[in-house]
Specification:
The chain contains 10 helices and 8 strands. The protein has 304 residues and is an alpha/beta fold. It has an 8-stranded mixed β-sheet, with helices on both faces. About 2% of the residues have low confidence.
């Protein structure tokens, strides 16, 4: 009995120590993240309805435009160097790119902090900030207003999809391994074509869910491409350097460029959808728990 009590108290003390460690590490990383953001952003965009300004990295093509525009949303780690590099790489292709900080000053490489960022960033708040970014883009003389799309990676892929459900003026949506929506009635509100890119070895998004997304888009009448890259983990499109040297990443990037060329640079594929929906995004605990596992222990763990 005495041994059992000792073991029980030891387990409780370890649990308390773990909780204190996680809370402390998140707080310390939060303070450091504020300083990181200063080096990652070059533009402040006025917030809407009293919200704080949205900090962003803006990458512009050479020339005078007007250019098609893309809002590029970061992973659950927040705005970081890999997103900045991807924004610059896309700008070289003739797109005016804005990569906003949707976590309002927070960025990290620490998974517990990444999860905390997602939990504490309400979808309505994220969409409000994306509305500010979209409105700012429409006011730029270098931007072709009707040719604005949204794209994102991981958390940002999901955020891009859900933002397209509430902004009927977007011309295209690109989802890189973001948790998909599989209800055709919901997807009917999408204002333009969709590209979905997923990894076949991604354990956070089952292939059955990707197939359901593909089928739901078809039932909703949304022009779309959904591609699964075999044997690729979650977050397999890593950074600008790897996109230029790794064949699989280069292929996925080239597929995205072809899609954007048709949707934003050419006549495009447009749909009349009327008003945007009032979609409210549920928090998918199962997805984010699997995402933690995938980043911590899966093949994607070395990609960030």
């Amino acid at each position: 009995m005495k041994v059992f009590k000792i073991l029980l108290w030891s387990a409780l003390l370890l649990l308390v120590a773990l909780v204190l460690f996680l809370v402390g590490s998140v707080a310390i990383d939060y303070a450091a993240g504020r300083q990181r953001m200063d080096a990652l952003t070059n533009t402040n965009i006025t917030g809407q309805d009293g919200a704080p300004d949205v900090r962003a990295f803006v990458a512009k093509p050479s020339g005078s435009g007007p250019f098609p525009a893309v809002i590029m949303i970061h992973e659950f780690f927040g705005l970081n160097e890999s997103i900045v590099g991807k924004a610059q790489l896309l700008a070289e292709e003739g797109y005016f790119v804005v990569a906003p900080d949707t976590f309002r000053g927070s960025t990290t490489a620490w998974i517990p902090r990444a999860i905390y960022q997602v939990i504490t960033s309400k979808p309505e708040q994220v969409n409000q900030d994306l509305d500010a970014v979209y409105a700012w883009l429409q006011a730029q003389s270098e931007v072709a207003p009707a040719r604005t799309g949204v794209m994102g990676f991981c958390y940002g892929g999901r955020a891009a999809l859900t933002y397209s459900l509430v902004n009927a003026d977007l011309a295209a949506t690109v989802v890189f391994y973001g948790s998909p929506e599989t209800d055709p009635k919901v997807l009917q509100s999408l204002p333009g074509p969709v590209l979905g890119i997923f990894g076949g070895a991604d354990r956070s998004i089952p292939l059955e869910e990707v197939q359901a997304f593909d089928q739901a888009l078809a039932l909703a009448g949304i022009p779309h491409e959904v591609t699964v890259y075999e044997d690729q983990p979650h977050a397999f499109v890593t950074d600008a350097g790897s996109i230029q040297t790794d064949p699989v990443q280069a292929q996925a990037w080239a597929q995205m460029l072809g899609f954007l060329e048709e949707a934003l640079k050419e006549d495009g594929v447009s749909r009349e959808t009327g008003l945007a929906s009032k979609y409210r995004q549920p928090f998918d605990w199962e997805y984010y728990l699997l995402l933690v596992y995938e980043h911590a222990f899966g093949m994607s763990g070395s990609h960030h």
